[in-house]
Specification:
Length: 420
């Protein structure tokens, strides 16, 4: 899927060109403790290119006004930019219409919206909701809440020792009582790419809708919601080189139209009296109150930036980095990679024998290297592998092989410190 872009970016096809992309990210010129920043915590949030920063500054500097409410020029300009970003999002994921794009704070709110507006009114005691054992807490807790509220049952599809979803197990769990399937597209803790096409095919054969948590996948995999035929897709802007506090719920028009609003307030109404309220059309009936206007515009700029480079080029670069990093860390004595699925992207989670992940992260930070350490909001995954947490290096388009080399050197330094 080709997306037109006005962003001034420099396409690159090889790892050696990554420094050109790096020039677009001002924070990468920072130093930590006198050492150049090596940012490998992209699974938590990506850094922002200057184009995104400029887009937010331009909104606040030249057209700050509320949307959909004013007839004055500033409001019209803000509304045009806000809705243009919605159209960019629809094109980026190949939605049928911008009406299928709901602005939310992030993937977490998107999943909660579906849980409370779609699932809760429809499921009853004895019904089942299926998730997988590799889910982020954001795709576990909302469904637990629905089950507590309705008496439905939460069923969990197991994963194997490599961190791959067991499709045969999924097929056995899927049944006449299954009312919804909610699975990650790409595991934030393991890097596993889930076979969502087959999951959707199996679920739809039972008449069961599917929600995909795309918080990790959206920046690393080409996402075409119509080709996937998923019913809902949730993602956050801040993991796609966009601002924090903005995200997207995609939903098929027929499903969204049948769902009641998630919240009440301004702009989600057509008319209000003390006796009755008539709700607005899609997508606005789910967007109560003043939205994150600057965030939406910034997300639109992020999509321009990513589209200017191309997801395929980004994925190839990250694939090279992950393969290179995997080969390098496998030579580190006492290091165990957690998550060795045949199909992976962007995530390298590991443990070092006898050293707590927090200690790894702290020592690396003194060398200017930012990684994640802990359970990554995926405690059931850690329990599955019998560990408290992992150290996690997660890659983005601006990372380089030289940074991987620095990470490996840093891990050797961690080991040396614990030998003293």
């Amino acid at each position: 899927m080709k997306i037109e872009s006005n962003a001034a970016v420099r396409p690159a096809d090889t790892e050696s060109d990554a420094p050109d992309w790096r020039d677009d990210f001002p924070i990468l010129r920072e130093e930590i403790g006198g050492k150049p920043l090596i940012y490998l915590d992209n699974g938590a949030t990506t850094q922002k290119p200057q184009a995104v920063i400029d887009a937010e500054v331009a909104y606040y500097s030249r057209r700050n006004a509320n949307v959909h409410r004013g007839v004055h020029t500033l409001s019209q300009r803000a509304t045009d930019d806000y809705e243009a970003a919605r159209s960019k999002i629809a094109r980026f994921i190949n939605a049928a219409s911008p009406e299928e794009i709901i602005y939310v704070r992030g993937a977490t709110e998107a999943i909660n919206l579906v849980a409370q507006s779609y699932a809760r009114p429809r499921v009853k005691a004895g019904d089942e909701i299926l998730i997988s054992a590799m889910e982020h807490h954001s795709n576990i807790v909302p469904w637990q809440m629905v089950c507590e509220q309705t008496g439905a049952l939460l069923k969990v599809v197991q994963i194997n020792d490599r961190g791959e979803l067991d499709l045969e197990y999924f097929a056995r769990l899927l049944g006449e009582r299954t009312r919804l399937v909610a699975v990650t597209h790409l595991s934030n803790a393991l890097g596993s790419i889930v076979p969502v096409e087959r999951i959707i095919e199996l679920a739809h054969a039972h008449g069961t809708p599917v929600l995909l948590d795309g918080a990790q996948a959206i920046a690393h995999l080409g996402v075409d919601v119509r080709a996937l035929d998923c019913d809902f897709y949730a993602f956050s802007g801040h993991k796609l080189y966009g601002p924090t506090g903005i995200g997207v719920l995609y939903g098929k028009t027929a499903l969204l139209s049948a769902m009641p609003p998630y919240q009440g307030g301004g702009d989600m109404i057509r008319s209000v009296t003390f006796e009755k309220t008539e709700y607005n059309d899609l997508p606005y009936k789910f967007e109560a109150g003043t939205p994150n206007i600057a965030g939406a515009i910034g997300l639109g700029a992020a999509l321009d930036y990513v589209s200017g480079i191309g997801i395929a080029a980004i994925a190839a670069h990250e694939r090279d980095l992950l393969d290179y990093a995997t080969a390098q860390v496998e030579e580190v004595a006492g290091l165990r990679i957690v998550g060795t699925a045949a199909h992976k992207a962007s995530i390298l989670s590991f443990t070092l024998e006898g050293i707590h992940p927090h200690d790894i992260g702290t020592i690396l930070d003194h060398q200017g290297i930012a990684i994640r350490a802990g359970h990554h909001c995926a405690m059931p995954v850690m329990q599955r592998f019998g560990i408290a947490g992992t150290a996690r290096a997660s890659f983005a388009l601006y990372n380089t092989r030289a940074e991987v080399d620095a990470l490996v050197a840093g891990l050797h330094e961690v080991q040396e410190m614990f030998k003293r």
